[in-house]
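[step 3/7] fold_predict: job queued, chain A
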Amino acid sequence: MNDPTQDIEPARAAECPDEWALRARHRPTQRRRIWMPVAAVVIVIGLIAGGATIAFVHGSRHLAALRNDNHATLSRVAVLTDQLAAATDERDRSLHAAAIARAALERARSAHERGASALSAQRADLASARRQAYASLLDATKRNAQLAALRDCLDGVSRALNRLSVGDVGGWQRTLRSVDPTCQRAQEPAV
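[step 4/7] structure written:
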């Protein structure tokens, strides 16, 4: 090892040999003292750099995970967008079909109303025709009854004339009196 007093200037060393000797001995300690803060600073910088590196690596991994999640989310959004477009198309087709069905229903309802109105008119006509047919039937029945009464009356008059032609005076009058109500019915007006 070197002598610590060698670093001290010779003139000064002679003045105060003990003080300079002491200083010379403490110089390596001072050098050590200078290197300690420097080493501490280097260690702190190393720790900071290591922490920053770890944080950078962690941040890079986190960023990569976020990118993967973003990619998966974008893929899911694309799938959902396609599904939404398909559902929208299906809804539009359903709305179009519903509009067509609604129009067909309105046409059918209108046709039904026209048919119901025509049916009601036809029913009224049928009821009127039935009444007329019934009245005609009653009239025909009454006329048939009058016709039958007229025949009976004519038959009675014919018998009375036959009796008169054979000279039966009392017989022809009795025959005429017996057919008189029948002849009265044949003369009643038809209502």
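[step 5/7] annotate
The mean pLDDT is 83.
The chain is about 90% helix and 0% strand.
exit 0
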